[in-house]
Amino acid sequence: MFDFLKKLKWYFGEHKWKYTTIVIVLLVANILEIIPPQLIGWTIDFIAGGEMTERLMWQLIGVFIVVTILTYTATYLWSYLLFDGAVKIESIIRMKLMRKFLLMSPSFYERNRTGDLMAKATNDLKSVNQAAGMGLLTLVDATTFMLTIILVMGFTISWQLTLFALLPLPILAIVEQRLGKRINAAHTESQEAFGSMNDSVLEIVEGVKLTRSYVQEAAENRRFRGMTDDYLEKFMKVERLDALFQPLTIIVTTFSFMVAFGYGAVLANRGLISVGDIVAFNVYLNMLIWPMFAVGMLFNVMQRGNASLTRINSILDTEDDVDDEGMDGVQESDMDFDHVSFQYPLSARTNLDDVSLTLRSGQTLGIVGKTGSGKSTLIKQLLKFYPEGQGRLVIDGRPISELDRGTLREKVGYVSQENILFSRTVRENILFGNPGATEAQLEDAIHLSALDQDLKRMPEGLETMVGEKGIALSGGQKQRISIARSLIRNPDILILDDALSAVDAKTEKRIIDGIRTNRTGKTTIIVTHRLSAIQHADLIVVLDDGRIIEMGTHDELSASDGWYSRQNDYYLKGGAST
């Protein structure tokens, strides 16, 4: 419980006056709430003693009404402030999580499943909200309210009766503390199972076409049912433990009522307390049911919140693998790979092996090779997606480690193999690359990417919704929208990572010719399986198993007896390069 509060001290420290006000108003509300039972006891004694008059009755009713209104006002005020704080805590943590998700390198997502990250951003945050709201409510209200009632019972009625009636309470506290620890462990397990189930849902939805094409619906359904049953069992384990709190509270309060009535009658017969005192005492005892039940709920809610906050903090405390403390300001686009070797964090082999090449600003580099030869890996080194390997990668005369990755990427227009589109219009997807672009710049990007003819066939042109991940578009249309999104930035370095694979040869030629004409003096890097896309390049490298096996111009490589020459001959004979 206190561990949870300690983890959120950064927020409580910033809003200490707000929470001080909450505590003060809550204490006032507690004091106001103990007045009505006293009024009831006095009324019974006035009636029993024959002292009740009409004026006294109206005075008691007036005080009762005023106290009720003040109690309502105070309770509303502190409840609003408390739950407002809980929502703000959740909002702040959610924004921190989103910022973390946006800034982390790809290796972070290789180690963390998407479904589990979603669970942390939804279910775990909900548990933190409940702990920061309902948890603090029960912590402050239950403890102060219980203490206030006990003091009033002891000092205004009978300390002996109060002592005997509350003897079962320590047993309740001990049992609930132990249950809370078990709930903490069980809740962590259930949230991890929920994350796995979330991840499975994502895979099933994204791969539904493949599942249907292989007629694996029944198998996938059985697999998912197993994961659902596993989550259900772990969730029900938490609920079974949680369900023990309320019966335990009822048993304890029942014993307290038995003591109160029995021993209260003895004290009344001895003349130590009045009948009105017994009635007031039992009203107070009845009011203690909420605090005692709340104490049980407190352990439960706080343990869940603490377990969830621990899971969230494990993400927030994760340091990025890629150092981002570099200097701003990249003026030129000269690049030098000096014996660069690299291995992905989860890879069992070297993905780039002793790569050396030089590309001057304004030149075009073509990268070809078999599938899995390291073409995309070479590109990712330029974008600082992963930690540096061995050797030196120098851009604009400085090692890439000394460059700020944000500034570096602002100079780059990158079209990846995935062609990721958002569930927005065609216009919004293109303008994502440069939100401040003019209509003229937009038209130029559309023309250069050869998207203009397709737009005429779309029902609403630029305002056509592309659907989730561009599902309403063909592969070639998605690629050209991605290219337009990069071209509208007019970047100093344009990288096309197999970005022309889904377009026909005529469209490819138009795009390449447009890039050559309009990007004079700017650097272009083209990763491709089609040799026709890079024949004009100033430098072509052929990769195989992470190593450069050939390097030169199209004419130089075609004249050699290597992989490039064989692929070019095959292409000229009407085949397709691989």
From TrEMBL:
PANTHER family: ATP-BINDING CASSETTE SUB-FAMILY B MEMBER 10, MITOCHONDRIAL, ATP-DEPENDENT PERMEASE MDL1, MITOCHONDRIAL
Organism: Salinicoccus roseus
TM annotation in the entry: 21-44, 56-83, 131-151, 244-266, 278-301
Occurrences of domain ABC transporter (ranges): 335-570
SUPFAM superfamilies: ABC transporter transmembrane region (SSF90123), P-loop containing nucleoside triphosphate hydrolases (SSF52540)
Gene Ontology CC annotation, any one: plasma membrane
Molecular function terms from GO: ABC-type oligopeptide transporter activity; ATP binding; ATP hydrolysis activity
Cellular localisation: Cell membrane
Main location class: membrane
Job of this protein: May be involved in multidrug export. Transmembrane domains (TMD) form a pore in the cell membrane and the ATP-binding domain (NBD) is responsible for energy generation.
Domain of life assignment: Bacteria
Record protein name field: ABC transporter ATP-binding protein
InterPro entries the record matches: AAA+_ATPase, ABC1_TM_dom, ABC1_TM_sf, ABC_transporter-like_ATP-bd, ABC_transporter-like_CS, P-loop_NTPase, Type_1_exporter
